[in-house]
Amino acid sequence: MQPHDHVFLGEGHELAERRTWSVIWLCGAMMVLEVVGGLMFGSIALVADGLHMSTHAGALLLAALAYGYARRHARDPRFSFGTGKLGDLAGFTSAIVLAMIALLVVWEAFSRLLHPEPIHFAEAIPIACLGLAVNIASAWLLSGRHGHAPGHDHHGHDHHGLGHQGHDHHRHDHDAHDHQGTVLDRDNNMRAAAVHVITDAAVSVLVIAGLVLAKLFGWLWMDPLAGLIGSAVIASWAYTLVRDTGRILLDMNPDTHLTETLRQIIETGGDRLTDLHIWRLGPGHLAAELSVTTGSDRQPADYHNQLSSFAGLSHVTIEVQRQ
After folding, report:
1. Are 99 and 201 members of one domain?
2. Domain region containing 86
3. If I label 320, which of 132, 149, 252, 266 is the partner at 20 to 30 A Cα–Cα?
């Protein structure tokens, strides 16, 4: 049995890590500038926006640390299926933070509706515009098609059951599969970081619109209304992230169409697929476990060759039982 790696990180993992750190430094500098400037010039609005920026910087820090940990421990044998899911765990956690931010915005907005406070437009509007500019710059840094990281080996593990006695003979084949741009390739860690930036940018646009209308027409209620709309946007993104990352963390079947296709291919010729499990190991990497009952003399390698054309099947286990 040849030793092999279980490295199931997404393509461009290190590039994504560097981009995330770049955005953290940008947000951190903006946060310090706003807090220090607010304290020097007596602007509570400036201090508040700086503290708000710190929540997103913290979420981005979580994403960067997850990238670093997954990269450093990618070949740690303690992780049976590698560290590819760490980004999904970080994305799930980040989504919970987003949901908490949405609740805080709702609380603040209702407080402003019930107890209106005077708005210092001369300070608030430039701060909102500056925050929007930082978010646009951050989104630009995080966006773009990631470069290709060094190729990862894709491992197919064939378990050949001898009769019904439970004694297995193990084969380890190393086949490369082509990657396709599907949701299975999605890096939820980068996605969560981008969501923090994009939602903050969207809220900044709403806040600017609300402040301008409040200044022009005296509609002070427009500011908290913009906050409520922004919180709905944040909550919607948070829900989507929790749903998608939660499915991966619970090993939910990521592609039912693929499952049925595999079943049809394996059962061609009279064989019977008695058990099949498919789950995601990391961005662009799927694992599959199959149990096949056959009356022929087909070997696990024969079934493995049938599946070799499927993109992203990086870890395949096949058990063959004779009728």
Report:
1. yes
2. 13-146+187-249
3. 252
Q: Which of 249, 281, 296 is the last residue of a domain?
A: 249
Q: Indicate whether 167 and 191 sit together in one domain.
A: no
How sure is the predictor about 147, in pLDDT bands with cuts at 50, 70 and 90? very low
182: left (phi over 0), alpha (psi -120 to 50) or beta: beta
Q: How many CA atoms lie within 13 A of 320 on its CB side?
A: 23
- Between the two ends of the chain, the Cα-to-Cα distance in Å is 27
- Residue 76's φ and ψ, nearest 5 degrees, are -70, 120
User: Are the beta carbons of 45 and 124 closer than 8 angstroms?
Assistant: yes
Q: How many residues make up the chain in this entry? A: 323
Sign of CA dihedral 144, 192, 125, 207: positive
DSSP 40-100: HHT-HHHHHHHHHHHHHHHHHHHHHHHHHHHHHTTT-TTSTT-STTHHHHHHHHHHHHHHH
Q: Are residues 92 and 203 in the same domain?
A: yes
Model confidence pLDDT, tens digit, residues 165-177: 333 333 333 333 3
Joined together, the tokens standing for residue 291 give 């149990």
User: Is the predicted pLDDT of residue 179 greater than 70, yes or no?
Assistant: no
Identify the H or E element spanning 101: helix 86-114
Inside any domain, residue 4: no
Residues 233 and 119 in one domain: yes
The helix or strand, by DSSP H or E, that contains position 153, with its residue range, turns out to be: none
Answer whether residue 156 shows pLDDT above 70. Answer: no
Residue 89's pLDDT band (boundaries 50, 70, 90)?
very high
Which neighbouring-strand residues pair with 291?
Answer: 275, 319
The answer to whether the predicted template modeling score (pTM) of the entire model surpasses 0.70 is yes
Q: What is the CATH number of the domain that holds 159?
A: 3.30.300
Name which of 309, 308, 10 is nearest 181 in CA terms: 10
Q: In the predicted model, what is the mean pLDDT of residues 231-235?
A: 85
Question: Nearest-CA neighbor of 191 among 149, 148, 244?
Answer: 244
